[in-house]
Design brief:
Blueprint: H1 3-13, E1 17-18, E2 26-33, E3 42-49, H2 60-76, E4 80-86, H3 95-113, E5 118-127, H4 129-134, E6 139-142, E7 147-149, H5 153-160, H6 167-177, H7 179-182, E8 189-191, H8 208-218, E9 231-233, H9 237-242, E10 247-252, E11 255-262, E12 265-272, H10 280-294, H11 296-300, E13 311-318, H12 325-329, H13 332-348, E14 352-362, H14 363-370, E15 375-379, E16 383-385, H15 389-396, H16 406-411, E17 417-419
Parallel strand pairs: 3-4, 4-5, 5-6, 5-7, 6-8, 12-13, 13-14, 14-15, 14-16, 15-17
Antiparallel strand pairs: 1-2, 2-3, 9-10, 10-11, 11-12
Length: 424
Amino acid sequence: MLSVECLATVKSRFEFSPVGETVGNLTIGRGRAPLGAGAAPAPIFVALIENRIASGSLGFKECEKLTSLFKVIEVQKIALVLYIDSAGARVSEGLVALGAFRHMYRAAVSAAASGAPITAFCGANCFGGASMLAALATRRVYSENTRFAMSGPSILAQAAGFSALDDVFLAMSMAATSGASRAKLGAADMMVTNPISMETLAPVDNTAIDRHLLLEARLAQLKSTARPARTEKVERKDLVKLYPQGYQLEERNGVLVGEAQYEGRKVLLAGFIGGTALGAERAWAQADAIWKMLGTDAMAAGSVASAPPGALHILVDCDSHATALDDERIMLSAYLANLACALHALARAGTHIETTVLGKLGGGVYVAIAAPVAQVNMLYGTEIQLLPGRAIASILGEAAMQKHEFSEYKLARVADHELKLGIV
């Protein structure tokens, strides 16, 4: 079933009735569906993100409306059907779209963690933040022409050294990002074969920890998994000023591990520095460290962590998620969503979490580590971008690349606090 047929079938199969007016690419409404085999039809919410303008992207207005929807779903625990045909956050709106997406994704992560069943039907395109949104779903359903990835075809082609129109690249790309390839990844993923397959919203019975461990199993497919482990001590002038009472920090296989004294109390340190794009392996390793702060045994049993850390600081200099096909083959979006879910779970357990930008931050990495936390800090002179500069230039042209004042970040709700550390 192609994406156009899938959308039409979603509307008819779930008795979709719009509520309110369409906002940009988003239409929200009500519907009905049985929530299990043999169950009577029950009320559900339906949200359609269609490719009407700007590749179906999500701007400020769409994100604000989705934020409200996810909050209602969390409280009422009503099932949600999402239809997503979108390139992600709207690049032309810049920081405004990024800030709105941050807060929308926070609400989406919280709704998913509440246990409300979410089913995402994927249209022709599901890229960037839209793919991270779909990755939160209890179940994902793909059309025959779905392409699902963190990066669009042109960015993936550039990273692989091909033209996006090259037949060899097209074959490689479809093998990594097509709906058919995604449907092979696990029980939560399936193809739309006929309307009957959409008849119920059958839940997938696994916990957040189950999904985390399933993602670990996929890492065996990565070529880089066999590289030797390494640990390096991290010493930086900006960290000396940020933590004048002292800190200890190591980088273990690309992930920060440490602690510091900050404002008279102990805080744990984590994150990514060095500017290297974040791939599935490091995203999983960081999420694993965070889940372990909660106690994986306790989480698997559904109990509350006995002693979560009081405070965690995520330190980051990483302006982009990885653009390698190897990472996409195992669904990079799911690894970034898993990191966001781990941070949300830790915050919900009582840990105060702040993200501090030491250099650059952007793309899906920003969403994963900014959406669930209490505060985003920026050192003076650092940058947060919707996408890396080269990607923005390829979409909007070189003139669209610009630096912003902190007041602009704060006004757009992208960041909350600026740290000058005596530098100026």
